[in-house]
Amino acid sequence: MRILVTGGAGFIGSHVVDAYLGAGHEVAVVDNLSTGHRDNLNPAAKFFEADIRSDRMSNIFSEFRPDVVNHHAAQKSVPYSVENPRFDADVNLMGLLNLLDLCQQHGVQQFILASSGGALADPGLIPSPESGSPLFVSPYSVAKYASEKYLEFYQHTYGIQTLCFRYANVYGPRQTPDGEAGVVAIFTQNILRGLPCKIYALPGMPRGATRDYVYVKDLVVAHEMAVTRRVSGVYNLGTGIETDTRTLVDELFAISGRVVPVTVQGARAGDLARSCLDSSKIARDLGWSFTTSVTDGLTRTYEWAHSLHEES
């Protein structure tokens, strides 16, 4: 099967590429390298350096002729979406529509969207099922929800099989602390460099917000399943376990054998107090569930980051 992965030079996208190649698929990557890294590119995949909003995408579809598009390219910063909602919508909505139009024109069979469980979780229902009511506290969450609805339209109107995976907080090797990164990558790098770790406390939650942390290698298993089982709809991918930010820091202290100062600041615009996903639907329909505990996943992630730190 020919699979086009947008954002395939990024943290999660590159792991998805590796999994598809390992399963014997022919894979192409589209990435403008604004946040992705060439070092993440698998040499067995064909690479196109391009922006998903560009006219060049038409030529890429014509040349590669994908059966499946796996869409990870995105503006992923929640705080930046609050500062610049127009840019967020341009990338996350207009970029998506460009891809969906090309899928319709080129007869693509399946479209898989990397959506956000954290942005679309129901804060009044923990863990949150897919059927909950999101609290739209950022343009990013609005764009992700609209993206899911656009997929419904294209499936109903053009027959493209569409699937949305709502991710919990994904962490693991290749996640960098630069730009809008996951807190695991930021804390790991700070510990290695002897820098303070910052916690954003919320009213009544001095240990910081709670999140559902899912290891990236568990996540990609669902993507492998998706292209063979061909399900449609919206699915959460998480552990159903809440971990507050201070607990995360303490776990990394224990794993690394190092301690750095911890500072506490107030919450940022767009931050949710709690986020945790109910993934029973995908367990029922595909048999997927996480297998890596937070402690094991953090250990593997720290060992990877430590090895890079020692080399530099």
In short:
Helix content is 43%, strand content 19%. It is α/β, with parallel strands linked by helices.
List keywords for this structure.
312 residues, alpha/beta, Rossmann fold, UDP-galactose 4-epimerase, domain 1, 11 helices
Topology:
Layout: E1 2-6, H1 11-22, E2 26-31, E3 46-49, H2 56-64, E4 68-71, H3 78-83, H4 85-106, E5 110-116, H5 117-120, H6 139-158, E6 161-167, E7 169-171, H7 183-193, E8 197-201, E9 210-211, E10 213-215, H8 216-229, E11 233-237, E12 243-244, H9 245-256, E13 262-266, H10 280-286, H11 294-311
Parallel strand pairs: 1-2, 1-4, 2-3, 4-5, 5-6, 6-11, 7-10, 8-13
Antiparallel strand pairs: 9-12
Structure in words:
The protein is of the alpha/beta class and 312 residues long. The protein folds into two domains: 2-170 and 215-237, Rossmann fold (3-Layer(aba) Sandwich), CATH 3.40.50; 171-211 and 241-276 and 291-311, UDP-galactose 4-epimerase, domain 1 (Alpha-Beta Complex). It has eleven helices and 13 strands. It has helices at 11-22, 56-64, 78-83, 85-106, 117-120, 139-158, 183-193, 216-229, 245-256, 280-286, 294-311, and strands at 2-6, 26-31, 46-49, 68-71, 110-116, 161-167, 169-171, 197-201, 210-211, 213-215, 233-237, 243-244, 262-266. The strands form four sheets. Strands 3-2-1-4-5-6-11 form a seven-stranded parallel beta sheet, sandwiched between helices. A two-stranded parallel ribbon has the order 7-10. The chain starts with a strand and ends with a helix.
